[in-house]
Amino acid sequence: MIRMKDITKSYKSGFGKEYVLRNIDLEVEEGEFITIMGPSGAGKSTLLHIIGMLDNASEGEYYFFDQAVHRMGEKQMTRLHQQYVGFIFQSYHLIDDLTVYENLETPLLYKKVKSSERKGLVAEMLDRFNIVAKKNLFPNQLSGGQQQLAAIARAVIMNPRLILADEPTGNLNSQQGKEIMELMKKLNTEGTTILQVTHSEEKAAYGNRIIHLLDGWLEKEE
Hints:
The chain is 35% helix and 29% strand. It is of the alpha/beta class and 222 residues long. The chain has one domain (30-58, 73-210): 3-Layer(aba) Sandwich (Rossmann fold). α3 crosses α4.
């Protein structure tokens, strides 16, 4: 599904370069649940954003379903992202002035899904994530756990092949965090490939492989 070779991310800094990622080699098979771990500043979120085609590598090769992402323009990358990838952020990234229903409907509008089909898909997600009663509320009227449930529902409404989760339980209490992780595990058993960034050994144990980053280098895998 994913093949990366010598992926490097750097920025100009004075007369030199500041490296965020260095020579990352990574392969991901469809159906895996992978955790990316490492201290702050290790490059975890940057790697996730490059995998999700929200950012470009400075050097290296990236193949997604054998398509050469490193040779693509922004429009092609956006199209590929919308077709295959769901992103879950620590800070939810819901649209404040839209209701839960409207937030879930937004990715379907981008994809020009017909009205009747949109209604059915949104209703299905509201029911699946137990947030039917919250559909007309705005994000600031929800608890952190409810906001993250809505964000995950929005991420999976297009039935993505790949979910990228950047500290998805970071702002939740332990019980809410456990519920979110159980939900992601269930999505994985149903066939969705998941890559998550976390600092938690407990959350990492939900996956089947752990990648450790340190100072931009892929330090080890287990």
